[in-house]
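Minutes, project check-in
Item: structure for the 180-residue chain
Input as provided by the requester:
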Amino acid sequence: MIIGYTRPYSEDENLDKQLQALQAYNCEKIYQEKTNSLKKRVEFDEMLTSLQEGDIVVVYKFYCIADSTRHLIELIEYLSENHIHFVSILDDVDTSTLEGKTFFNTIKRIGQFQHDVISERTKAGLEEAKLKGKSGGRPKKPDYNVHRALDMYWSKKYTIAQITEATGISKTTLYRYLDN
């Protein structure tokens, strides 16, 4: 089955152009999001659960289905593992063809390269900061606040909420000190 998916890139985008392209591609069913949010995609989730082996997912352009290279790669891998093809009309990509598969393998390698570069830069930056005597993470709470919080806790006169408000020590931090 050829299944289309649309999502506006911005809140005021008209989906007519996307719908016309999907209809021209002979999509048998079209899932249409009303908002551009990637967090709440009801139609997308419904589409994913309805997909079967041999289906083809068609979008107007990559941005309709993913907002990052990483997300796009993960989605294409998921579809591929389930023997579902992917087509992006304007990007001229079809994973059922050798060219489409090659394109996504290249994108995947570029995405991994990008991840590796960011990771190496982060490690180098942390190492440089360490050499300069700086440490990462949140600043530690002053010992007197910790001792005060512990004293309040052991007195059994205060609730956890009262202790955290009075000392500025979070509930999690308080319990971590209590476990030591």
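Outcome recorded: The first helix runs from residue 16 to 24.
No further action items on this chain.
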